[in-house]
Amino acid sequence: MKIAVLPGDGIGTEIVAEAVKVLHALKLPLEMQEAPVGGAAYELHGHPLPPATLELAMASDAVLFGAVGDWKYDKLDRPLRPEQAILGLRKHMGLFANFRPAICYEQLVGASSLKPELIAGLDILIIRELTGDIYFGQPRGRRTATDGHFPGAEEAFDTMRYSKPEIERIAHVAFQAAQKRNKKVTSVDKANVLETFQFWKDVVTEVHAQYPDVELQHMYVDNAAMQLVKAPKAFDVVVTGNMFGDILSDEASMLTGSIGMLPSASLNAKGQGLYEPSHGSAPDIAGKGIANPLATILSAAMMLRFSLGQPAAADRIEAAVQKVLAQGLRTPDIYSEGTTKVGTAAMGDAVVKALAS
Ligand code: NAD
Questions:
Q1: CA 67 to ligand 1: nearest atom
Q2: What pLDDT sits at residue 140?
Q3: Does the N-terminal or the C-terminal CB of the chain have fewer CB atoms within 10 Å?
């Protein structure tokens, strides 16, 4: 089982080191190879996704990714910015389904800004389509009142589009995920206003005919944003397009109050995947040894389950994380009175120890 390890920038290197430590502790035949990505790769090779890094990722069963980005790269041309590495990996690997579970751990109920009764036991899964929608629609651009060029533009435009096969494949992914959970899919659209999303709704409904055991609910995106904070536990699997998914998955992840806890997976049709924490490179705390590594460690668990066919090992990691939380160990982002504050490496060590027991 070949894993490309791409730590990236900021806290990326610190948190990935802990996930690698945990993976080694499983004593599975894992072949891990590291390569630079993002700002770190730009410094070394002049590009955020150098050919050797891309080749390694493409030749691996899975990619374990840290985070990329730093304010110091904000002035670079867009294709050279660290964040472009993620878009490049998504494109070349054909990653079309982004899974973001939002799970509220019993011990962290108090970390949410919502009332405990709304959040206790929360376990929802947001599935975001990654390859279509307004982010990749053509035409796009800016124009003046008289010609098709800028500067001096007076308007800008992007085109929203989805093809039938794109909607069908993400709908299948959502229904199949729901079959392994509570058998309910909420498809989020804006069919009342946008033709693209009337089409989305029609195609999802068509695919649903193949999954009679799963309940399908349609919801407008504005209502979904509201229901996510009003009654989040009413959801099971939420499936939506690229832009609505971008926004709703961040909203859902913050329901749990702890961005440092939330893993994510982006999968292609072959089961290859890129696994990363939901958060960014956190330049404000980089190098201080205080970042929470649990989102990355939980991403490694998702990797074992979805791309490496090792569900038992994934269960072991998740149980070990529950155990360290039950022991009261907390990095500063999830610390509360009466618990024990630990740093990044100590948290990783504690997970390894919990695995062994
Ligand atoms: P961020 O997620 O990096 O940080 C937001 C806040 O959460 C910060 O206060 C940070 O200290 C805290 N935080 C994040 N992860 C944490 C962890 N594991 N433990 C403890 N605290 C944590 O978002 P940002 O500040 O908006 O962006 C910083 C950089 O990261 C930017 O360059 C941005 O483009 C990039 N970014 C990258 C990714 C990615 O690599 N997938 C995702 C989002 C943002």
A1: 40
A2: 80
A3: C
Shortest CA distance to 301 belongs to which of 249, 232, 351, 237? 351
Where along the chain do its domains lie? 1-99+262-357, 123-255
Asked if domains 1-99+262-357 and 123-255 share a fold, the reply is yes
Q: Thinking of the domain 123-255, which architecture would CATH place it in?
A: 3-Layer(aba) Sandwich (3.40)
pLDDT profile of the chain (357 residues), mean per 10 = 97 98 97 98 98 98 97 91 94 95 89 90 95 85 66 83 97 96 98 97 98 98 97 97 94 84 94 94 97 97 95 97 95 91 98 95
Task: Give CATH superfamily name and number for 1-99+262-357.
Answer: Isopropylmalate Dehydrogenase (3.40.718.10)
Q: How far is CA 151 from CA 44, 138, 139, 148, 155, in A?
A: 33, 20, 18, 10, 11
User: Which residue lies with its CA nearest to atom 36 of ligand 1?
Assistant: 280
Question: Against a cut of 0.85, is the pTM above it?
Answer: yes
Q: What is the pLDDT of residue 100?
A: 94
**What span, in angstroms and rounded, lies between the C-alpha atoms of 37 and 83?**
9
Which ligand 1 atom is the nearest neighbour of the CA of 11?
18
Those residues with Cβ within 8 angstroms of residue 315's Cβ, 6 or more apart along the chain or in another chain: 301
Pocket test for ligand 1, best of 279, 284, 296, 329 (most atoms within 8 A of CB): 279
Calpha distance 88→81 (Å, rounded): 11
Q: Which of 256, 281, 329 is the pocket-test mutation for ligand 1 (most atoms within 8 Å of CB)?
A: 281
Catalytic positions, written as ranges = 135, 190, 222, 246, 250
Q: Ligand 1: residues within 6 Å at CB?
A: 11, 15, 67-70, 83, 86, 259-260, 276, 279-285, 291-292, 295, 333
